[in-house]
Amino acid sequence: MSAKDWIDKDFYAVLGVDKSASADEVKKAYRKLARESHPDHNPDDPRAEERFKAASEAYNVLSDDKRRREYDEMRSLFGSGAFRRNARGGGQPGGVPFDVSDLFGGGGGGGGRFGGNVSDLFGSIFSGGGAGGPGRARGPVKGRDVEAEVALDFTDAVHGVTLPLTLRAPGVCDTCHGNGAKPGTTPVTCPHCQGSGTTTRNQGSFSFAEPCRNCQGVGTVVEEKCPECRGTGGVTKTRTLNVRFPAGVADGQRIRLAGRGEPGERGGPAGDLYVHVKVRPDELFGRSGDDLTLTVPITYPEAVLGTDLRVPTLDGTVTLRVPPGTPAGRVLRARGKGVVRRDGQAGDLLVTLDVVVPSRLSDEARQALETFAEHTPPAAREHLDARVRRFN
Question: Is 173 known to sit in a ligand binding site?
Answer without folding.
Answer: yes
